[in-house]
Design goal:
globular, mainly alpha, single chain
Length: 442
């Protein structure tokens, strides 16, 4: 990404990320769709209530993976393959240990945490079953995210995509088998997901091993390097902390949503899955810009980075307009994919309202993602952490202020308002120019 016109490079890198992101969301989306149609509103609400808590428990591990990915990209951009190998070795050890800790805590403590989120008693058994299985076998998800972060840092976004396509097909087939044919209920949905996650992880890890000489990764399975470990924590902890903040915000909002009852929970669960796919265009362009920035900042190609930002902003805003129109015009029809015509119209209406608000919000998200990712790619992790805290504070504050007056609609409106807050810090940081001196290598 250090030579050639920025727009084709960013698009070429973002498209596999986009397709991969969509397929990654298909894991949970298919679970939710089949659970909603075959097991009903309560099971759907139970599965949906686990998302924010699961994300919180894995946010430290995933944040360190993303931080290591930025470090690997910077090493690769300046041709420092020795440091790159040491970084990959260190993250393998760090993530392996942390994953084991998270898995043990999560499996035994998830009922307690779910009750803290005010999950209703009529759905909590579904929630506990689903979450325990996911956390017990979470190694597959972590291994995939770690391996794909390394591959993308090396400029390969196609291999993670291939892995996700294969895994998504397996997930769909297993969902149908373990829910419809063999009535394992929500346990079947969870088992299908973890098997698919392990397949995607195995594919990426095998590819990295097969191409280890080409990527300069021979000898990565040695002891962790102290200096690289420090650098990974230097950039990864703020990134992980930002993820923790986001997940805390999600849990706080989920607790508020749970207080409105099963229909609102079910409607939000289905609509949030649609939203998670719709937003992939914007987040994929942002992630591509982050890698583009990481590979160019070591050589101090600031003009080229600025061109990449302008291209990404333009493409993100145009994409946001198209997605917004689709979400607002087709909300009811999209919701019916998850809840059949014989099920709760209240849940469908709630979900359609959520999609309408989010459609408008995508324009703000396009700006936020572009500026946050250029700062993140530069290695300015502390600024990203501050931006994440600002967004979190805005989301919780606006949700709890507006919900008593506007009901669940107040919770939906809090999201675009919080994204507006999240834009302020990275935009000011970018135009201050201070991010230019944050590269970890070069």
């Amino acid at each position: 990404m250090t030579t050639g016109k920025p727009m084709p490079l960013i698009v070429g890198f973002a498209v596999p990320l986009l397709i991969g992101g969509v397929f990654q969301q298909v894991y949970n989306l298919v679970d939710v769709m089949i659970v909603g149609r075959y097991l009903g509103e309560q099971a759907l609400a139970g599965v949906g209530s686990t998302g924010s808590l699961t994300f919180f428990m894995l946010s430290l591990v995933m944040g360190l993976c993303n931080g290591a990915g930025i470090l690997v990209a910077q090493c690769f951009g300046v041709g420092n393959f020795s440091d790159m190998r040491r970084a990959v070795t260190s993250i393998i050890w760090i993530v392996g240990i942390l994953t084991a800790v998270v898995m043990l805590i999560g499996v035994f403590a998830c009922p307690f945490f779910l009750r803290l989120l005010s999950v209703p008693e009529d759905v909590i058994d579904y929630s506990v079953t689903y979450m325990r299985i996911l956390l017990l076998f979470t190694g597959g998800s972590v291994a995939y995210n770690g391996a794909s972060a390394v591959l993308r840092s090396l400029g390969d976004s196609k291999t993670p995509l291939t892995a996700l396509i294969i895994a998504s097909v397996i997930n769909i087939l297993l969902d149908l088998l373990l829910i419809v044919v063999i009535p394992l209920k929500v346990a079947g949905a969870a088992i299908a997901t973890v098997i698919a996650q392990h397949v995607s992880a195995g594919y990426c890890l095998f590819y990295l091993y097969k191409k280890r000489e080409e990527f300069g990764l021979v000898g990565i399975l040695t002891k962790p390097d102290r200096d690289m470990t420090v650098k990974i924590f230097q950039i990864g902890v703020p990134t992980a902390f930002q993820s923790c903040l986001i997940s805390i915000g999600s849990m706080s909002v989920q607790r508020l949503i749970n207080s409105f009852g099963t229909s609102v929970m079910a409607g939000y669960t289905a609509a949030a899955k649609i939203d998670s796919i719709a937003i992939q265009v914007i987040t994929s362009l942002g992630s591509a810009l982050s890698v583009f920035t990481s590979q160019n900042i070591g050589n101090r190609q600031f003009k080229r980075i600025r061109e990449g930002l302008h291209c990404t902003l333009f493409m993100s805003i145009v994409s946001a307009l198209i997605i917004a129109a689709t979400a607002m015009l087709c909300g009811q029809q999209l919701m019916r994919l998850f809840l059949g015509t014989d099920q709760s119209q209240d849940a469908v209406t709630v979900g359609a309202q959520y999609l309408t608000v989010m459609g408008i919000a995508y324009l703000i998200c396009a700006v936020m993602q572009s500026y946050q990712n250029i700062i993140r790619g530069a290695g300015d992790a502390n600024t990203c952490m501050i931006a994440g805290f600002t967004e979190l504070a805005g989301r919780i504050t606006f949700a709890y202020l507006l919900a008593p007056h506007l009901g669940e609609m107040g919770i939906w409106i809090a999201t675009p308002l919080s994204w507006g807050c999240g834009c302020v810090v990275p935009v000011f940081r970018y135009y201050s120019g201070k991010w230019k001196n944050k590269a970890l290598v070069g």
